[in-house]
Structure formats: structure tokens, C-alpha cells
Design brief:
Blueprint: E1 3-8, H1 14-28, H2 32-52, E2 61-69, E3 72-79, H3 107-114, E4 117-123, E5 126-134
Antiparallel strand pairs: 1-2, 2-3, 3-5, 4-5
């Protein structure tokens, strides 16, 4: 039972996206912990796409597809923005002191650490980021 959402490249779309993802996790019986990790990863990925993937003022679309298959939850995020593979970014080196630390640059690290597997492809002029995690437990509604 694949669930789909299409949003515009606007930061105002992040809240409805999170609500859709939460509803999708409930519908697919995914645990609260895994739902939280998908929401964190999706928000990081989509916010970066919206903020940096398009020329200022350019309109675009971001499509999300969430599915449960073969014991894995899979979220595919596709956008028509500039080609960019976030997984090619080097992991940030830890700062030696608080004064040397910088704001930002941890989003891709959060995505990598919260998901079991991350893949990127450029297909048909679109960025395709696939986030996958094993489903260790499935919630069941109790009646």
C-alpha cells in the first residue's frame, strides 16, 4: 500500500509533509520511533532541497512515496531541482572547541545516522533520494 504526496518547493509545505508522513506511518503500522526518524530525515532532506535546490523564486515540485515492503519502510523523495547528491558530502569533522564549531552542516549526517540505508540517483532530470530502514516492530491497534 504505497502512499504518495506532492508538494511545492516552499518551506510552508514541511508541516503538511510531516503530518502526511505521520499518518502514513500509522496506516502502515510503523513504530513511533521509526516514524520519528523518517520525519527527521525527510524534514532535513526536503528543507535542504527547498532552500538550496532551486534558483531564487523558481517553482518546483517535490514528490514523496512511502511504502512498506519486505520488512523495510522506504521513503523515496524526488525533486526537479538542480542535480545534487547529498550523500557525496563528507561527514563534518568534530570541532575541537565550542568556539571552533559552526552552525549547520549536520543535516546529511542526521539523515545517514537515522536511516538504515540511503541511496541517491539522478533519473530523468530529477533527484531521487531513497531512505530505507528495517521495520523491527510493527504497531498493532488494540481494541
Amino acid at each position: 500500500m504505497s502512499r504518495r504526496l506532492r508538494i511545492e518547493n516552499c518551506l510552508d509545505a514541511l508541516r503538511p509533509m510531516s503530518e502526511w508522513l505521520a499518518e502514513s506511518c500509522v496506516a502502515l503500522g510503523i513504530s513511533d520511533d521509526l516514524s520519528y526518524r523518517f520525519d527527521l530525515a525527510a524534514n532535513e532532506a526536503v528543507a535542504n532541497t527547498i532552500s538550496y535546490g532551486y534558483a531564487p523564486g523558481a517553482r518546483g515540485t517535490i514528490e514523496l512515496c512511502f511504502d512498506l515492503t519486505h520488512g523495510h519502510a522506504i521513503l523515496v523523495i524526488e525533486d526537479d531541482g538542480n542535480a545534487f547528491n547529498p550523500l557525496e558530502l563528507a561527514e563534518p569533522r568534530p570541532a575541537s572547541s565550542i568556539e571552533d564549531s559552526r552552525i549547520g552542516g549536520l543535516g546529511v549526517l542526521l539523515i545517514r545516522r537515522s536511516m538504515g540505508q540511503c541511496e541517491y540517483q539522478r533519473r530523468g532530470g530529477r533527484n531521487v533520494l531513497t531512505l530505507k530502514s528495517p521495520v523491527l516492530e510493527i504497531q498493532h491497534e488494540s481494541h
